[in-house]
Description:
The protein is an alpha/beta fold.
Amino acid sequence: MPNFKTCFIAAFRRAALAAVTVLVACAETAPVGESYPPLWKITAPDGMEAHLFGSVHMLPKNIAWRSPAFEAAFAQADRLVLEVSAAELSSSAAASHIAAHGRLPANETLADHLTPKDYATVMAAAETYSLSETQFIRTAPWLATLQLAVSAVAADGGAAEAGVETVLAADAKVLGVPVEGLEQLDDHLDTLSGLPMAAQVDMLVQTAEDAAAGPIRIDALVAVWRTGDLARLETELLGPLKENAALYDALIAKRNKAWTEKIVRFDANDGRPFIAVGAAHLPGEDGLLTLLHAEGFRVEMVR
């Protein structure tokens, strides 16, 4: 069963970001002795060049993550490529999807899908973060997971408006740089709402167990993120998720394959893209770096 940190990274980005409409730019100087998260330069066999950055979707507002190399690459980009385009994220489509798929049937509550022990754990976590019991018990497990995850991260100072994609989308708007998506919003949200009920329940229970223990330590997550150590990233971010093959396949493997196929089709004549996706999508045998290398791309880490 995946742990809370992995559920947050893998789950939050697909739905909670869709509700974010406030775009706040954030650029700090990294403290002496601390490194920036790595940036990757990818070069296709036909010479098409792009930069790829692994993101975190909720961050404290004082976290520095933009290196001089990052700033130079972003300034040269002709377009920004995110998991889902900024236009779709700012539309009403996310709210419509949640309205259609975020509630249990009228005659059901979470208690119908959880053991008494697990139900008590989930409701204790909901109470910890002041989530309305009346509303929460009618919420589909995938969405309940997001609500708990967002609440726990926010309790430790994480903010969606300081997350990487939100900041970059705001900057792109100011610069007049178009923003594209690697997938459609409906596909983005269907990844979670379309999970089998058993997988949704597993995700919710583990998230509740971790969230009930207290706020997530964002500093620990950021420390791993900044290392650029792919083996460590794979262990920390993907190891627990791989314990549930269905979740790992739906949230990571299938989407990485689809994104790779789209990136391979990028044309050098269309300019230089800057790609930002969740950090959990980069490492491992199913990660974007490995998949792109297998397609003949040259992959180089830059700082």
